[in-house]
Amino acid sequence: MFLPCRLFFQAPSASVLLGRRRGRMQYQTRPGGARGFFTVPPGSPLFFQDGMMDWLTSLTPIPYPDALARMEARAWAIRESGAAQALWFLEHPPLYTQGTSARPEDLLWPERFPVYAAGRGGQYTYHGPGQRVVYVMMDLERRGRDVRRFVHDLETWLQEALARLGVAAEPRADRVGLWVRHPNGGEDKIAALGIRVRRWVSFHGIALNVAPDLEHFQGIVPCGIQEHGVTSLRALGLDIPMADADAALARAFTAVFGETLTPVAGEP
């Protein structure tokens, strides 16, 4: 039945999955809150089907702690109980995230927006309205346990999506992300990526600057890179609706990864 799947999606957003008992998944709300159980039966829409992934889209900004808890829960379910792999399209309210390589001096304005330790690779970055964040929860055991190739494919995905939107962007060997050249010879970053892999399941993902407030990036040294700037589709003169950016990302993802995306209501 579909009801247990709905229970999975409606589990408390700020929760920690504790394990499985008698075929059920147990969660505990934070901090020190009540514990509960929910069941996802084999054959439900949440379970993995070869060559298919759930495509989830949030219509309102998601607080970062909630997003992190839901990502971790879904990654756990992919590894432990055969849940479907998933892409989660969302936006955040204005905030900064701190990767595992972040340097304190790169946080220039710590009181401006909330700062969260992300647990992903990389340094400081900004998230906010107008930026399309996509969290990628994939089973890398099915892709040869090759993290380097996975990062390359993420960059290729972004490059292909931007090409579909009319933007020529390129990765760089010495710095992560997608970069756009401008006439004076410099380069600006239009998309960032940072992932974490736990037990061969990825989470975190990519961020594409569609139409964010670029001034908000001035509170940090984005990704620790001082010599290059940040840009967006809007700053390049492209007034592209978020839905069109999503469509380009979805089509490019299927082209690069060979996975069919199935729209699914709800959130991880």
Automatic annotation (TrEMBL):
Residues 81-261 form the BPL/LPL catalytic domain. Substrate binds at R120, G121, G122, Q123, Y124, T125, Y126, H127, A192, L193, G194, G205, I206, A207. The record marks K189 as: Lowers pKa of active site Cys. GO terms for cellular component: cytoplasm. Keywords: Acyltransferase, Cytoplasm, Transferase. The keyword Cytoplasm applies. Pathway: Protein modification; protein lipoylation via endogenous pathway; protein N(6)-(lipoyl)lysine from octanoyl-[acyl-carrier-protein]: step 1/2. GO terms for molecular function: lipoyl(octanoyl) transferase activity. The active site is at C223 (acyl-thioester intermediate). InterPro entries: aa-tRNA-synth_II/BPL/LPL (IPR045864), BPL_LPL_catalytic (IPR004143), Octanoyltransferase (IPR000544), Octanoyltransferase_CS (IPR020605). It catalyses: octanoyl-[ACP] + L-lysyl-[protein] = N(6)-octanoyl-L-lysyl-[protein] + holo-[ACP] + H(+). SUPFAM superfamilies: Class II aaRS and biotin synthetases. Its EC number is 2.3.1.181. It is an enzyme of class 2 (transferase). GO terms for biological process: protein lipoylation. It is found in: Cytoplasm. In the reaction, the free carboxyl group of octanoic acid is attached via an amide linkage to the epsilon-amino group of a specific lysine residue of lipoyl domains of lipoate-dependent enzymes. Catalyzes the transfer of endogenously produced octanoic acid from octanoyl-acyl-carrier-protein onto the lipoyl domains of lipoate-dependent enzymes. Lipoyl-ACP can also act as a substrate although octanoyl-ACP is likely to be the physiological substrate. PANTHER family: LIPOYLTRANSFERASE 2, MITOCHONDRIAL-RELATED, OCTANOYLTRANSFERASE. Belongs to the LipB family. This is Octanoyltransferase. It comes from Pararhodospirillum photometricum DSM 122. The gene is lipB.
